[in-house]
Amino acid sequence: MSKGNVPSNGKRRPDRAALFIAVFLAAIAGIMFWDVSRLSTIASYSRIGPATVPFVIACVLMVLALWTALEAWRGDFPEREHQEVGPVVWIVGGLVAQLLLLTTAGFSIATGILFAAAAAGFGRRKLWITIPVGIVLCLGIWLIFAGLLQLSLPAGPLEHLFL
């Protein structure tokens, strides 16, 4: 067996990852079709209503799912590069940390930690620099959104110093 989707006999086999993506796209389209069927029961005086755009998007997703499945079955996708898991773990870990810290630590600290984790995922591993820089940048963003635009973002101990 050689590398990729090409066995030793020269014929390409179906791309399992692409087939999984096709199934995922079809599942999303199915959920949207189900939701559109509920929306279409709402009485509307015109042919274009709240279900029109979601129906079009679901149709496009279903076409993409079928197209992806066809291309995957043929094995026509180019060979993918090796994926590094480390950067993905850093970024997903930063998102989880932000979600867990948002209500207790506030927007600036939680999002500053997300900033530092994303920077580490992209190769900048000096957390002692990126965490404070991220917190300061996010505090500036919080001050603009909460102070000038009067939008409600989660406030923590750092944000309460400025209110």
Automatic annotation (TrEMBL):
Residues 20-154 form the DUF1468 domain. Keywords: Membrane, Transmembrane, Transmembrane helix. Pfam families: TctB. The keyword S-adenosyl-L-methionine does not apply. The chain crosses the membrane at residues 17-36, 48-70, 90-115, 127-153. InterPro entries: DUF1468. The keyword Transmembrane applies. It comes from the Bacteria. This is Tricarboxylic transport membrane protein. It comes from Pararhizobium capsulatum DSM 1112.
